[in-house]
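STRUCTURE REQUEST FORM
Protein name: Phenylalanine--tRNA ligase alpha subunit
Source organism: Parageobacillus galactosidasius
Requested output: structure tokens
Priority: standard
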Amino acid sequence: MKERLQQLQQEALEKIEQASDLKALNEVRVAYLGKKGPITEVLRGMGALSPEERPVIGALANEVRQAIQSALEAKQAKLEQEEVEKKLAAEAIDVTLPGRPVRRGNHHPLTRVIEEIEDLFIGMGYTIAEGPEVEKDYYNFEALNLPKGHPARDMQDSFYITEEILLRTHTSPVQARTMEKHQGRGPVKIICPGKVYRRDNDDATHSHQFTQIEGLVVDENIRMSDLKGTLREFARKMFGKDREIRFRPSFFPFTEPSVEVDVSCFHCGGHGCSVCKGTGWIEILGAGMVHPNVLEMAGFDSKKYTGFAFGMGPERIAMLKYGIDDIRHFYQNDIRFLQQFHRV
Ligand code: 2U9
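Status: completed
Returned output:
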């Protein structure tokens, strides 16, 4: 029995030595130290031994079990260490490799033009006002001197949600709402940038959704010369210090008198070229003195207060500035179009 135990120990230690992974090692553990293993079997057979032999064999059996147990533990620690090292080697990161370049984005050309115009007017003391895109018929039309059935409503056909609620066709309702909030007390000096909607068929120069920036100044003694000086300053900051502007008579229901505003061509300086179609002038804005009806409807005394208003389309300004030939480019999100405005 003594020899059998010594032989088992030698066999087990050899197998432990040969085990190349944790699974194989566990198989050795089960085979030698398990309930059905040979050592347990030896211990079970101890009943047949003489009382003198029993403690000797018992002690030897425990020694063998202990030796196998220690060898298993040592080998397990070794295999686990090897596994960690293997994993670390496989997952090693070469920190000296060059990094992947980050692709930088840029602002949309429209956003850029809108922000440029905003900054320019903020510099002249204006504040920015915003309002809802889903608007009441009252603020979009009625408060702007466009009562139901007015023929000028046809030029701004909208998307109606209900009879009384629609997608705003211009940013003018924001001015009407802001004036109302002032409760008849000036001054009001705001610009209103934002998205507007019209029921229109899209083509190179029309879009059912576009942006506007409109401005409004209401105070005592505001005159048309104030409007002209303001817009001349704007034209020079936007298109170059030598620009001139001219007013041509026009009609808007919310202003009286109303004008179309041209700026001298920034491309040829006014001599005539393809950009200004040979005229030397480019139309950039509509404007006028706020109609007394509009002032009164918003709660201002039109005998005490006067005001001017103007409106422009940032798409048109961006198209002129960057030579863009189709308004649809702004909304198609073609990355090849957008990437051309990197750091212009
Ligand atoms: C109030 C009073 C007056 C806003 C104005 C224009 C002239 C104008 C268009 C130009 C091209 C917009 O982008 S566009 O389609 N705008 O010509 N807008 S005066 O007048 C107002 C607005 C609100 C309370």
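Reviewer notes: The chain has a mean pLDDT of 91. Residues 144, 170, 172, 175-176, 179, 212, 214, 216, 252, 254-255, 286-288, 290, 294, 309-313 surround 2U9 (CB under 6 Å).
Form closed.
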